[in-house]
Specification:
binds fe (ii) ion; Dehydroquinate synthase-like, alpha domain; alpha/beta
Length: 373
């Protein structure tokens, strides 16, 4: 199989080689304005694509929402690229992934809301270039879109990017809090994947590789970063992405979306808010696991990776990591109030909740939320 992943210093230049090899002349670049400039990717792209016809199109909003999706789709139909490059955080990557497959769809809202779409073809090949180390969106067969602040997932193998370019220098400019949330997303995704109902031997392998890398490098990357930490965290995020592309995520993700949409908390940070609570919940209820695999064995693997003996040590260690990278866990300090419960409960992603190995009902969730005050 032809090489599809390019990881390492100056790997951004592979856009040029891919374009030359495949004779792509019209290139559409989707990006986030701030990250493109701050990462230095804009100057690099100007050089790399100097002989090509290309256009850069920016997203407007921080969440991947319907407004930006429609603009991306319009741009694709208008510019008619023969290659799309998505360069940015998870939101840009997800918008590019969906728009590239929904380019001729007239009924976006209804199709997304009812999960009724037939993903058969994409407009053009897609190169994904993450500028944060976290979401793993470069590797997943699904993408997030918010409609009226509710999160939906578009799923299908075809939306996976065709090429992945990871150029660690590009993530060195990510603001600290965004990088911290992103790294925590990768860690949560790898952990959730380990115990997800849909996990397989292959996804477990990716999770283990991912967690080993991120545990070694995450705190250093946030507090004293260098090329090496950026490299390790990028690869950790990629492997966590590969893990959840197989297994999907579980309860902490299911609950996280309203925190992001209504309280403005960054995705990875929002996931972390209940990660420890659900780990404890699942461990306490091990006997009730619906999984085909032995859930206690999976917990043992997680304990080993984190070098801890039991669930309390595990959650303590995770809390420590989060606090060392500056992620707040207090609902009070984050201005999450009890009134927000109804939004959270109403907007829980039940699809993700069903991947949890233990059945969770709304009362369990209420209890977990109540314990946060
Ligand atoms: Fe995530």
């Amino acid at each position: 199989m032809k090489k599809k992943e390019f990881i390492g210093k100056n790997s951004l230049e592979n856009i040029k080689y891919i374009a030359e090899e495949k004779k792509f002349d019209k290139i559409l670049i989707f990006a986030g304005k701030k990250s493109l400039r701050a990462s230095g990717a804009d100057d690099k792209l100007n050089k790399i694509l100097s002989k090509k016809k290309y256009e850069i199109f920016y997203k407007n909003n921080s969440l991947p929402d319907l407004e930006d999706l429609k603009k991306f789709i319009f741009k694709i139909n208008n510019f008619k690229p023969d290659l799309i490059v998505a360069i940015g955080g998870g939101a840009v990557l997800d918008l590019a992934k969906i728009s590239n497959c929904f380019f001729d769809l007239d009924t976006i809202e209804i199709s997304v809301q009812n999960s009724k779409y037939n993903l058969k073809k994409k407009f053009s090949p897609l190169i994904a270039v993450p500028t944060t180390a976290g979401s793993g969106a470069e590797a997943t067969a699904n993408a997030v879109i918010y409609i009226d602040k509710k999160k939906y997932s578009v799923e299908g193998d075809i939306i996976k990017p065709d090429y992945i370019i990871i150029d660690p220098d590009l993530i060195l400019s990510t603001p600290k809090l965004i990088a911290a949330a992103a790294g925590m997303d990768a860690i949560s995704q790898a952990i959730e994947s380990m115990i997800s109902m849909k996990s397989t031997d292959e996804s477990v392998k990716y999770s283990i590789i991912s967690l080993n890398d991120s545990l070694k490098s995450f705190e250093k990357h946030i507090n004293n970063q260098n090329f090496e930490t950026a490299y390790k965290m990028s690869v950790a995020a990629l492997n966590a992405g590969k893990a959840i592309s197989i297994s999907k995520t579980t309860a902490p993700h299911a609950l996280s979306y309203p925190f992001t949409a209504f309280n403005g908390i960054a995705h990875g940070h929002a996931v972390y808010l209940t990660l420890n609570d659900f780990l404890k919940f699942n461990y306490t209820n091990l006997q009730a696991s619906k999984s085909k695999f032995d859930l206690s064995e999976r917990f043992k693997i997680i304990f080993n990776i984190f070098k801890v003996e039991n669930i309390n040590e595990l959650t303590y260690k995770i809390s420590n990591i989060a606090s060392n990278v500056g992620l707040e866990n207090s609902f009070k300090k984050l201005n999450i109030i009890k009134k927000d419960y109804e939004n959270i409960l109403k907007n829980i992603n039940t699809q993700r909740l069903s991947n949890n190995p233990i059945d969770i009902n709304l009362n369990d969730i209420r209890e977990i939320l109540n314990s946060k005050f």
